[in-house]
Design a protein that fits this description.
This protein has 19 helices and 26 strands. The termini are far apart. The strands form 7 sheets. Strands 2-1-11-10-12-13-14 form a 7-stranded mixed beta sheet, with helices on both faces. Helices cover 34% and strands 23% of the residues. It has 3 domains: 56-203, Rossmann fold (3-Layer(aba) Sandwich); 224-464, ANL, N-terminal domain (Rossmann fold); 469-573, ANL, C-terminal domain (GMP Synthetase, Chain A, domain 3, 2-Layer Sandwich). InterPro entries: AMP-bd_C, AMP-bd_C_sf, AMP-binding_CS, AMP-dep_synth/lig_dom, ANL_N_sf.
Length: 574
């Protein structure tokens, strides 16, 4: 089995092959990029789902059909098309189609509620909405119809029409254009008309997508990313991790998220690779899909990795092709990485970090880094090769550490807020000049909200989010420092700490701890461990044990700390 896992060549060999394939950077729009890749890798599978697989060639034909339907609908260059869909091949085809039509894609989180969706549709100046009837348990066709009606009746809104894709046996409200009628419009548009629009709008520096990200305070902000930014970021991941031609990647992540788009779809597209995905992460289904499609790579977040490794079926699943694992979004302790290596038999593991503002990850650990580095850092700035910024050697970005309050640049090795500049970094937030001015300085550095340090080798260590810090009697506590200590206990699977109000000390720590299956641990043991490694004021006053199913998660499997704070408040009242 090990020989099969090593049949892909070393990472150095794969990186050399990529640099030979892409000796210089060709600036493309997403439509032009996929046109070229779909010609070269026409028969390769691009999107693989539990019950279907779509090749590059088939995806291109769908994208052209959807783009012609957009033109018939009335989509103009620069229009904003919001997409509220669960994972399906149509999602990718719509992204390519919107690029071909010269429109801007606005991916929406399918877990959002009415108020959130209303805000984003208005704030983004959405002209068109394409929605699934259902996404998971969310009945979007019903839930969004009043928003659609309000927007259409608002004379000041640019909103025009909503298209609904039925995916359940239920009637679609009349306010929507049906998917079938939308597609019929494609027949009335000549190929020459589409090619003319595509040529007229083929600008890699135009905004390709507005992707919303939640701020530490206030309402969500729409990050504007160009085609060139998205593709450069994807290529940097492809090169840093050494993607080989035809790499198959399992990513049970939502397509609206930059993690799926950048580390998966766009990165894989440079080598004719394919994405294996599903509607929502389920551990057993994940093992079945990884075996069915014999994936080479697994993109995960820690909560997914833990849940998958806890399934007894993992020992009996044929994962002979799997050799790579990228686990991001939150730090993972050494024991979890060891379990992954032992039980999945992966030979290339890594983690990373970034931000939507910088087109997903900007940092990745290197293949071959020791477990200690992978568990305590988020790596170095990605190698970008031909896609690099001319000022930064073979990198797309550079980082510095600033004082969060004064924005002064701090000396090397200092702890502070990380700020990033480069050719994959957004110009700002859509129609939010004040937030953009706060985040971005005159030199083009944008503040990340992450606290960290950069060592002499370039490795970046995160100390938490600036918004996650809390103060106990005036002393600042970074939750991650204490989380790392508690993770040292052999019975602990995951731990997250939040700050909660306290009458005596202003704030104090509240720890949520998930134990490994069959393991036991007491609150006293955790407090003793903390007292041995951190100052007394950092020891959490509250400790609650939780089950794996209790964690409040985002669509990408990240722990929602603000919800943990709400849960902590409820528990303290009891």
């Amino acid at each position: 089995m090990l020989e099969e896992r090593q049949g892909h060549g070393s990472v150095v060999e794969r990186q050399a092959a990529l640099e030979k394939m892409y000796p210089s950077w060709e600036r493309r729009t997403i439509a032009t990029h996929f046109h070229k890749q779909c010609q070269q890798y026409s028969d390769n599978p691009l999107i693989m789902m539990p019950n279907q697989a779509v090749t590059y060639g088939e995806m291109w034909e769908r994208a052209r059909e959807y783009a012609k339907a957009m033109l018939h609908l009335g989509v103009k260059p620069g229009d904003h098309i919001a997409v509220l869909m669960e994972n399906e091949p149509e999602y990718v085809a719509l992204f390519v189609a919107s690029s071909m039509a010269g429109a801007v894609m606005v991916p929406l989180n399918t877990q959002l509620q009415k108020e959130e969706l209303t805000y984003m549709l208005r704030q983004s100046d959405t002209n068109w909405l394409i929605t699934h009837q259902y996404a998971g348990k969310q009945h979007h066709a019903e839930g969004v119809k009043n928003i659609v009606s309000e927007l259409q009746a608002d004379a000041e809104s640019p909103f025009t029409k909503a298209v609904c894709i039925p995916n359940k046996e239920a009637d679609v409200p009349e306010i929507y254009m049906t998917w079938e009628v939308f597609l019929q419009g494609a027949r009335a548009v000549e190929e020459t008309a589409l090619n003319k629009r595509w040529k007229e709008t083929d600008n890699p520096d135009a905004t390709a997508a507005i992707i919303y990200t939640s701020g530490s305070t206030g309402l969500p902000k729409g990050v504007m990313l160009t085609d060139d930014m998205l593709l450069r970021s994807g290529f940097a991941t492809c090169l840093t991790r050494g993607y080989e031609v035809g790499r198959r990647i399992y990513a049970p992540l939502p397509m609206y998220h930059v993690y799926f788009l950048q580390e998966g779809l766009f990165a894989a597209s440079f080598v004719g690779g394919g994405m294996v995905t599903c509607h929502a992460f389920q551990p057993l289904q994940s093992l079945e899909l990884m075996e069915k499609y014999q994936v080479h790579d697994f993109l995960a977040v820690p909560s997914m990795l833990v849940a998958l490794l806890n399934r007894p079926e993992v020992k009996h699943t044929n994962l002979k092709s799997l050799y790579a694992l990228l686990c991001c979004a939150a730090p993972s302790p050494v024991p979890l990485w060891k379990r992954a290596v032992d039980e999945l038999e992966v030979t290339e593991i890594g983690t990373g970090c970034g931000a939507t503002e910088a087109g997903s990850t900007t940092m990745l650990t290197e293949i071959g880094d020791p477990l200690e580095i992978i568990s305590t850092t988020v790596g170095k700035v990605k190698t970008a090769g031909a896609a690099a910024h001319p000022e930064f050697g073979d990198k797309s970005v550079t980082y510095k550490v600033i004082d969060p309050d004064t924005r002064e640049t701090l000396p090397s090795g200092s702890a502070g807020e990380l700020a990033v500049r480069g050719n994959v970094v957004t110009e700002g937030y859509y129609k939010k000049p004040e937030e953009t001015a706060f985040a971005k300085d005159e030199d083009g550095y944008i503040r990340s909200g992450d606290l960290g340090t950069i060592d002499e080798q370039g490795y970046i260590r995160l100390l938490g989010r600036s918004k996650d810090l809390y103060k106990v009697s005036g002393e600042t506590v970074a939750p991650k420092e204490v989380e790392d200590v508690i993770s040292m206990h052999p019975a602990v699977n995951q731990v997250y700490i939040v700050g909660v109000p306290d009458q005596l000390t202003t704030e104090t720590g509240a720890a949520f701890v998930e134990l490994k299956q069959g393991q036991t641990c007491t609150k006293q043991e955790i407090r003793k461990l903390c007292r041995e490694h951190v100052a007394r004021f950092k020891v959490p006053r509250y400790i609650w044990f939780v089950e794996a199913a209790d964690w409040p998660l985002t669509g990408t499997g990240k722990i929602q700390k603000f919800k943990l704070q709400d849960i902590a408040e409820e528990k303290r009242k009891k």
